[in-house]
Amino acid sequence: MCAVIGCYLRITLAGFHRYSTYRQAVLAGTATNIVFGLIKVGILSGVFLARDGASIGGYDLKTTITYVWLGQGLLGVVDFWSEDYLAERIRTGDVVVDLSRPWNLQAALLATDLGRAGYSAIARFVPQLLLGALFFPFRWPDDPMVAPAFVLSTVLAVLVSFHIRFLLGLTAFWLLDSRGVRGFYGVTSGLLAGLEIPLTFYPQWAQTALSFTPFPSLLQVPINVFVQVGDPVLLLTQQLAWVAVMVAAGRLVLQRAMHKVVVQGG
Amino acid sequence: MAEASVYVRLTRAQIRGQLAYRGSFVMNCLAQAIAQAADLVVIAVVFSRVAALGGFDIHSVLLFYAFSGLSFGLADMFVGSIERLPTYIRTGTFDVVLVRPLGTLMQLFASDFQLRRIGRALTAFGTLVYVLSTADVHWSPAKILLLVLTPLAGAAIFGSIFVAANSVSFWFIDARELANSVTYGGSYLTSYPITVFNEWLRALLAYVVPGAFVAYYPALTLLDHADPLGAPLWLGWLDTPVALLAATAAALIWRTAVRHYRGTGS
């Protein structure tokens, strides 16, 4: 086993380093996030203008604009759509090498993803937070405790997001090609997590239904912690519960999958 | 014209190839349709909170959405494969494109024709049929012509945006996402009345990149709806000339970009 925790730490740093080499891509991605952010701000401002400023479920115009910029920034950190290394390794059979390494595959891949998220937090989240705060009506928290709670909530969001992508990748053991499943996730996850519009705007029945899924934990919950809508303890507990469920599901499915592996060739 | 027949033959071969994997094709097609329908859900949620957005009711906005989606879907299907350009440049495959006795653009369009992208166009077309069956349009032969020309002109405008934006790849290696900001961003923006956006975003994404002629102006003309910003009603008729202008501009940008190409060496 990767006896000391230091090994995973090194993998995390390697993940951080790997993403920091794609500077142009990060810049291009941030520019794209900003353009989409501007469009969302326009549409949602139109909504409040038509309502004569009346708020929706605790969200006023200022909170909603803050939501947009936090969401655009978190998008790169939480990562809905990146290429799946695992699925590709399963398809080509290279996963056998990964499985025989002296580490826990789930933990090792998570370590890489945390490194990636860490880099994105600096290169993508912070600039967009500043952009939103400097040029738009912005709702800063009025309690210093919000900062650590938001960081924790974001880490939990990355954990949930990683495990969803991990599980989708594992389906390649059964489907051989997981691109279809991941494609469906790609086109629906933004809508279900509240990327386009805050989930608060959805009809009550839809919000209730979504509260039984991990999707709000990806974006809505960390943002709610930041803009101080809802009880922070309850929000973090909700995320923690999903992390526990997803980690367990990941372990179980990986174990099942390993029974399926047949090493071919000699 | 010989070139067009080569394009048709190459495309037909690609379609045959893609239809060979029927299950995968249907699933991909469905994912595209869902991606387009997600925007429809957002519009429905927005209008569950307001009666009008930027001075337009849901029927007008659905008409913008339908024109925009149909235009984007058609453009994506016929020229969307140009998104692979960064890969061709990076791997040096573009050299092969240059030495063949066929137009460079034609070759790229035909290199990866994706019939599954029809999913987007189908969702938008369904919406168009629904809106027109409920809307109160005073039909005339001229308006029927406008109805037919609008998605074609819109597709040409989006196609031009695809070509012009992806030309940036000749200068920046990882610019794919940057191109997405004007292609997908343009599709997102044109689904809404331009009245909700602030002046300079309107100036940039509606007139410099002529997105306003994809859906907004033609829809106003079709509905005899006066523009809240005071533009004359006949502006909708200019969508086809604007599309021709955009195509010419895109062709010029493409030629300049290709001349800039120096290969990747090795």
From TrEMBL, chain A:
Key words, A-Z: Membrane, Transmembrane, Transmembrane helix
Key word Membrane present: yes
InterPro entries: ABC-2_transporter-like (IPR010390)
Residue spans crossing the bilayer: 121-138, 150-176, 183-202, 233-254
Keyword Glycosyltransferase: no
PANTHER family, sorted: INTEGRAL MEMBRANE PROTEIN (PTHR36832:SF2), SLR1174 PROTEIN-RELATED (PTHR36832)
Descriptive protein name: ABC transporter permease
Source organism of the structure: Kutzneria chonburiensis
Automatic annotation (TrEMBL), chain B:
Listed InterPro entries: ABC-2_transporter-like
Keywords noted in UniProt: Membrane, Transmembrane, Transmembrane helix
Residues spanning the membrane: 25-50, 62-82, 121-139, 145-173, 200-219, 231-254
PANTHER family linked to this entry: INTEGRAL MEMBRANE TRANSPORT PROTEIN (PTHR36833:SF1), SLR0610 PROTEIN-RELATED (PTHR36833)
Name of this chain's protein: ABC transporter permease
